[in-house]
């Protein structure tokens, strides 16, 4: 073989080997990089899904313990007669409808259902023996119960939360709440994610794909299957094994799965990166499956691109080497300079275009945030106005009674005045007219206070006189104060606070009104308003000697729509709005327990002129 033939052959083999080596290395690097990127993305998605599941469960954790506060429920456990059962059934049905749960029911100490929210339905739980359920045994042992299973009555899956019910320190029954978690699956499917949750038995209880549900992710012994069948935790499900063709662990919490899916023809479509995480307060594992098909496809694309680039570069290098022999050095240098200038100009143009686009995006984001801030402020003002009207609505009966008395007196006095004028008794008629004027002035004060309290306040800033605000709040609440003997103690300075006058009045009406609610039926009832300066701020404490605030109530006091009042007596917005109004004025509102009663501490900044005057 001549030299002329051997050299091209050697160069061709070298080029082919270089192309294969670069494509192989690029493929491996691209696969590893793609898996790393997919893992990071999966970790973020896994965190979001985990927080979503945990927050969905935490919404209902407090519900079973709430039944401990219902005296009729405790009476039913002590004496299970028909009247108590009917009242508890109605209470549970109303609570179930408001909270959006599947069912709420009460078990006696033997595990039999005494009352249930579905007592009207043909598949009611009332009378069933559920002592075999783990949530019953956990609650009877004094622990909160957590259990996922399929109902033994109609086969409806749900998450069960239980809590012991104590009477005189003894566990006399169990409160159970059944929660629907199917909305999580709908959210996963809407997001296009392949997600499932397996319980402590390895059984998939929630999944984005319905065919995965009630499959097991690892083999179960026949003895364990018999135990689960006897417990009826999964009703009569056969619990088939999830069809995994292969499973390889890459790192702790990270696996490579290949599913046996007949619906997917390409083998690459059955490969997934499986990432798992244990949920808080449970033994459940949430698993996210990220498809590897895109990573494989991208790796092949990068490998082909690398091979093409290497081949082109090599050919260009050979061509340039041949061309270099025939082109003068000056021409080569000039062309190189022109190429450099062109590249620099292109980069400048690209950089300028990128900066312009970034500037436009920033301006758009600023406009969107300003619009969102205006919308939020408007919504907050509307909610504040709704809170005012709710307070006025709650006082409507007392205000109507307060106005009816002067109206009746006006009707009597006006009729008598006509008669006295006809008889010529002008002195008596003049006295009646004077009394009528005083009654009209009194009615005007009532309606004027209501108008001032209901007036819309669009701004959080302003100035408010504390003593004026307290007088206005007590005047609005005077009908309630007159019906029940309550002593009001005032121990504060008449300071000028940096908050709108009507907003301060609304906060005080809510706090004093809540104190009056807590004092119903309390002997020697007393509301104490005390204040003290704290640097450039003023701290006003509204305290009562009522029943106090239990820990489970105090944790949810400032949540919207949370209330301990009877149904129809409040919206649960008073403290939420009061805290929001205080925060808008750079202040705070906190609740503090007392040995007897409760106290709410309102702290607001003093006006600058008030601070100078104090100094």
From TrEMBL:
The keyword Nucleotidyltransferase does not apply. This is histidine kinase. It comes from Vogesella indigofera. It is found in: Cell membrane. Pfam families: dCache_1, HATPase_c. Residues 398-608 form the Histidine kinase domain. Keywords: ATP-binding, Cell membrane, Coiled coil, Kinase, Membrane, Nucleotide-binding, Phosphoprotein, Transferase, Transmembrane, Transmembrane helix, Two-component regulatory system. Residues 334-389 form a coiled coil. It is a multi-pass membrane protein. The chain crosses the membrane at residues 299-320. Its EC number is 2.7.13.3. It catalyses: ATP + protein L-histidine = ADP + protein N-phospho-L-histidine. Its main location: membrane.
């Amino acid at each position: 073989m001549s030299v002329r033939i051997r050299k091209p052959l050697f160069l061709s083999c070298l080029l082919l080997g270089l192309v294969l080596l670069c494509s192989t290395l690029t493929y491996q690097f691209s696969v590893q990089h793609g898996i790393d990127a997919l893992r990071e993305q999966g970790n973020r998605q896994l965190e979001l899904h985990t927080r979503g599941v945990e927050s969905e469960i935490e919404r209902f954790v407090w519900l079973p313990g709430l039944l401990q506060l219902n005296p009729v429920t405790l009476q039913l456990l002590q004496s299970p007669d028909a009247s108590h059962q009917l009242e508890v059934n109605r209470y549970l049905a109303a609570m179930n409808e408001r909270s959006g749960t599947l069912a709420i029911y009460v078990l006696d100490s033997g595990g039999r259902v005494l009352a249930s929210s579905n007592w009207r339905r043909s598949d009611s739980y009332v009378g069933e023996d559920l002592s075999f359920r783990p949530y019953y045994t956990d609650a009877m042992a004094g622990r909160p119960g957590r259990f996922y299973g399929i109902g033994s009555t109609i086969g409806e899956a749900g998450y069960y939360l239980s809590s012991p019910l104590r009477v005189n320190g003894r566990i006399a029954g169990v409160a159970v709440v059944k929660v629907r978690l199917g909305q999580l699956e709908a959210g996963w499917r809407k997001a296009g994610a392949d997600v499932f949750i397996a319980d402590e038995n390895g059984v998939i209880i929630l999944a984005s794909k319905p065919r995965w549900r009630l499959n097991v992710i690892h083999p179960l012994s026949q003895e364990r299957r018999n135990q689960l069948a006897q417990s009826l935790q999964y009703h009569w499900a056969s619990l088939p094994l999830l069809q995994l063709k292969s499973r390889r662990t890459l790192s702790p919490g990270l696996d490579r799965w290949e599913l046996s899916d007949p619906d997917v023809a390409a083998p690459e479509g059955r490969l997934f990166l499986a990432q798992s995480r244990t949920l808080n307060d449970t033994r459940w594992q949430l698993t996210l499956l990220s498809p590897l098909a895109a990573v494989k496809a991208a790796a092949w694309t990068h490998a082909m691109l690398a091979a093409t680039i290497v081949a082109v570069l090599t050919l260009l290098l050979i061509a340039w080497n041949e061309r270099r022999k025939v082109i003068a050095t000056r021409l080569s240098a000039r062309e190189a300079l022109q190429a450099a200038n062109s590249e620099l100009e292109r980069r400048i143009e690209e950089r300028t275009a990128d900066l312009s686009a970034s500037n436009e995006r920033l301006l758009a984001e600023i406009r969107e945030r300003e619009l969102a801030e205006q919308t939020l402020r408007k919504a907050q003002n509307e909610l504040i106005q709704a809170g005012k009207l709710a307070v006025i609505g709650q006082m409507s009966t007392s205000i109507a009674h307060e106005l009816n008395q002067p109206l009746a007196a006006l009707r009597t006095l006006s009729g008598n005045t006509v008669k006295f004028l006809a008889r010529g008794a002008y002195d008596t008629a003049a006295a009646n007219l004077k009394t009528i004027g005083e009654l009209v002035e009194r009615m005007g004060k009532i309606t004027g206070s209501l108008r001032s309290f209901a007036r819309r306040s669009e701004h959080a800033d302003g100035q408010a006189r504390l003593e004026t605000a307290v007088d206005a709040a007590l005047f609005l609440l005077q009908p309630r104060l007159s019906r029940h003997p309550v002593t009001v103690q005032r121990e504060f300075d008449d300071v000028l606070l940096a908050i709108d006058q009507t907003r301060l009045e609304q906060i005080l009406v809510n706090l004093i009104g809540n104190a009056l609610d807590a004092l119903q039926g309390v002997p020697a009832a007393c509301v104490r308003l005390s204040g003290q300066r704290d640097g450039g701020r003023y701290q006003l404490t509204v305290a009562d000697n009522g029943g106090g605030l239990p820990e489970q109530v105090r944790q949810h006091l400032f949540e919207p729509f949370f209330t301990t009042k009877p149904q129809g007596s409040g919206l649960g917005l008073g403290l939420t709005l009061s805290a929001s109004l205080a925060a808008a004025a750079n202040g705070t509102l906190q609740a503090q327990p007392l040995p007897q009663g409760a106290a709410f501490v309102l702290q607001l900044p003093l006006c600058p002129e008030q601070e100078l005057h104090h100094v």
